């Protein structure tokens, strides 16, 4: 797989929760869990299921930083 995004995090799917049209996919990246909202069709196309290896690809135009 080649992709232009630089923030590619490999992990394991720990939960897939489908809704009416959108699913929440939780991926464990070395002890930190990242949640992605994707379509149910994408879950089916990627054959995502708990225990499967997957990549969380982060592509953002803005990142905000805050402190107390």
Automatic annotation (TrEMBL):
Taxonomic superkingdom: Bacteria
Coiled-coil residue spans: none
Pfam families: TOBE
Domain named Mop: residues: 2-67
PROSITE patterns: MOP
InterPro entries found in the cross-reference section: Mo/tungstate-bd_C_term_dom, Mop_domain, Transp-assoc_OB_typ1
A Gene Ontology biological process term: molybdate ion transport
SUPFAM superfamilies to which the protein is assigned, alphabetical: MOP-like
Keyword terms, alphabetized: Molybdenum
NCBIfam families from the UniProt entry: Mop
Protein name: Transporter
